[in-house]
Amino acid sequence: MLVDDLRGMFYIALKDLRAYYFKPPNISWGILFPFAFILAFAIRNPGDLRSLVPGLLALTVLFGTSSMEAIVIVFERRIGSLERLLLAPIRLPALLAGKLLGGMTFGLTVTLAVLLIALSIFGGTETNWLMMALALLLSATAFSSLGAFVSVAVREVFEAQTLANFIRFPMMFLGGVFVSVDSLPAWLQVIARLLPLTYSVEALRAALTGGRWETVWLDLGFLAIFSLCLYSLAEYTLARRLD
Predict the structure, then answer these.
(1) Rounded mean pLDDT of the chain?
(2) Looking at residues 111-125, what average pLDDT do you find?
(3) Measuring CA to CA, how many Å separate 205 from each of 35, 37, 47, 182, 208?
(4) Four-point Cα dihedral 92, 199, 39, 119, nearest 10
């Protein structure tokens, strides 16, 4: 059974990557959209551009993993192909994990491209690469799980897009991408601490500046908790939808 689940996860992720993700519009969206926001902020408030790199990476992971993830499942439920996947020898948790794996792979791929560009401009001599890998992996897992939950929570593609943007855009402005969370009013800081993007930005900032592990374990731990909770909610909601 485990072998069937793992094989199913691999081929579901591969199918999604070929059918949905690795298309020119998605690649350009995943890379150019975060760049456009960062550039707009940099033009408005020129300063230390290097300080914007953690936010740029976090935004790229967020939009790269969740943009298509938020509509793939609802689209396949709409046309009936998701139910056909369940006819294969694979359990529902593994099917959902395969969907997440596709979104994570695409998101990490475009983020790696952005990271290479940023390092070629600003350098990366202080980067803690193990911390960077963990931060990106857990961020991709959390944001892909968020996209999956959005996708199973609605019935139409346009509803998924609306709900995803309703969640992502506040996170973008409250999660420490453009301004430090500590500089926000106290009540906004409380809200920011409820958002996974906040912990992603902090973990990536620590990784890029050679931060110590004791300062980043909390961020990584919260990203893992967000991943588990959002995946569990997505699995529960999808099971209810398919009953």
Answers:
(1) 83
(2) 81
(3) 17, 18, 17, 14, 5
(4) -90
CA distance 94 to 206: 33
In this structure, how many other beta carbons lie within 10 angstroms of the beta carbon of residue 32? 13
Sign of CA dihedral 191, 192, 197, 199: negative
Phi-psi region of 56 (alpha: psi -120 to 50; beta: other; left: phi over 0): alpha
Instruction: Give how far the C-alpha of residue 104 lies from the chain's centroid of Cα atoms, to the nearest Å.
Output: 7
Alpha helices for 24-128 (secondary structure H): 24-44, 53-79, 81-85, 92-122
Element (H, E) at 16: helix 2-16
Residue 204 pLDDT grade (very low, low, confident, very high; cuts 50, 70, 90): very high
Q: In angstroms, what CA-CA distances link 90 with 81, 93, 107, 122, 204?
A: 14, 8, 25, 46, 35
What are the φ/ψ torsions at residue 216 (nearest 5 degrees)? Answer: -120, -10
Where are the domains positioned within the chain? 2-242
